[in-house]
């Protein structure tokens, strides 16, 4: 069977299998859209166009293959890796119609590629979350003030609950004493309410009050001390 006859026969088989995916470009060129075998929920879609050019010596030599993304993204390294694996499989099928085998292989490889991408993204997300957790949140004046308001509110509520629990456990007499103590003003509170208390004793000083001359007291004390020094005692005492 000549190469042209082999190619024509293979075209007929491929058209029946890939009715919606295959486009015949010429007598020796076809294009087949290749998709992954299966996609899990949430995985991205990736579709490539496989162009096959059959040479005069096909199937005793490999056809020329090329891949181009038509849906989703694939970088040059990924494309080259897929082509290398397709050509390696073609070498194993030299002398036989190999296009169907190559397309099936590429579908499996696309599924594997997408799973690898998905796993890599999950690991990257985990690393980013861990870095964010260990790095913490930068402290700004606004963030600190917001935290301070929340913290003080929590402390106030906690103290209120503690007071309520303490009050519930009291007897009626203890509750009355507690209420009186709670309403009794401290010295500081009294001063803050009426700062005139500090000078409130001034009006009590009446007019005509005699002031004490301390120097007179000192002179009298000195005189008494001198007289005591001059006292003499008899031998009979």
Automatic annotation (TrEMBL):
<dbReference type="InterPro" id="IPR006575">
    <property type="entry name" value="RWD_dom"/>
</dbReference>
<dbReference type="InterPro" id="IPR040213">
    <property type="entry name" value="GIR2-like"/>
</dbReference>
<dbReference type="InterPro" id="IPR016135">
    <property type="entry name" value="UBQ-conjugating_enzyme/RWD"/>
</dbReference>
<dbReference type="Pfam" id="PF05773">
    <property type="entry name" value="RWD"/>
</dbReference>
<feature type="region of interest" description="Disordered">
    <location>
        <begin position="217"/>
        <end position="237"/>
    </location>
</feature>
<feature type="compositionally biased region" description="Acidic residues">
    <location>
        <begin position="224"/>
        <end position="237"/>
    </location>
</feature>
<feature type="domain" description="RWD">
    <location>
        <begin position="9"/>
        <end position="113"/>
    </location>
</feature>
<protein>
    <submittedName>
        <fullName>RWD-domain-containing protein</fullName>
    </submittedName>
</protein>
